[in-house]
Write a structure and sequence with these properties.
The chain is of the alpha/beta class and 215 residues long. It has six helices and twelve strands. It starts with 14 loop residues before the first strand and ends with a helix.
Length: 215
């Protein structure tokens, strides 16, 4: 949960909100909702996304439900610091794809009195913490973890399972590349992958090599 009203109105300060979760969990949807509320309140809002994210549109931030809001694509986190200096609210989508400078940028903006709302994947397809997201979650005042629905069990999903065999850490894709899985389903899927790569040797060949070694 996050608060929009402070107790001490004389103290001018901002804060950081992080929205995290797996693929198809509604992160961008929630980011857009909060930003549009700020726009409706006549606040000066700027939205940024990594320039590499061109899945739906070059400039728009678009959710899986086709909600959208205009954004500024930037190649590096340092660009945000310059472009967002006079804003009331700053939104950042797909934060996991930014360099580690995004952590200092978000904190610098918050220290200047700006409300910073960040959305991103908390784990990569291997189940490891993704890029700068852990540090952003640690320094944020408010962290909201949203969940998808597991495509195999119907339970809450927090893992983004990659269906393709590509091993690149950054691989933009949709349902043809990823599916959200629960912990149990993800564990079983990863276990099956490990079994596939185990080399199965012919018992006769193993016995022959063993006899040769003993001689």
């Amino acid at each position: 949960m996050f608060l929009e009203n402070t107790v001490n109105h004389k103290e001018q300060f901002g804060w950081i909100e992080v929205i995290c979760g797996s693929m198809f969990s509604g992160k961008t949807e929630e980011l857009i909702r909060r930003l549009k509320r700020a726009q409706f309140a006549k606040q000066k809002v700027e939205i940024f996304k990594p320039a590499i994210d061109v899945r739906y549109d070059d400039e728009m931030v678009v959710s899986h439900d086709a909600n959208e809001i205009r954004s500024t694509p930037v190649p590096a986190a340092a660009n945000i610091r310059i472009l967002a200096d006079t804003c009331d609210v700053v939104g950042i989508d797909e934060a996991q794809f930014f360099d580690d400078e995004i952590i200092a940028v978000c904190n610098d903006l918050a220290n200047k009195g700006i409300r910073v709302i960040v959305a991103g994947l908390d784990m990569d397809f291997k189940g490891n913490p993704f890029g700068p997201m852990p540090a952003l979650m640690a320094t944020a005042e408010y962290v909201t973890k949203v969940h998808a629905v597991c495509t195999r069990t119907g339970n809450l999903a927090q893992f983004s399972y990659r269906k393709s065999t590509k091993d690149d850490l950054v691989l933009l894709g949709e349902t043809e590349e990823y599916e959200p899985l629960s912990r149990a389903a993800y564990y079983k899927a990863m276990l099956k992958e490990k079994v596939k790569v185990i080399e199965v040797k012919d018992p006769k060949e193993v016995s022959k090599n063993h006899n040769t070694t003993n001689e």
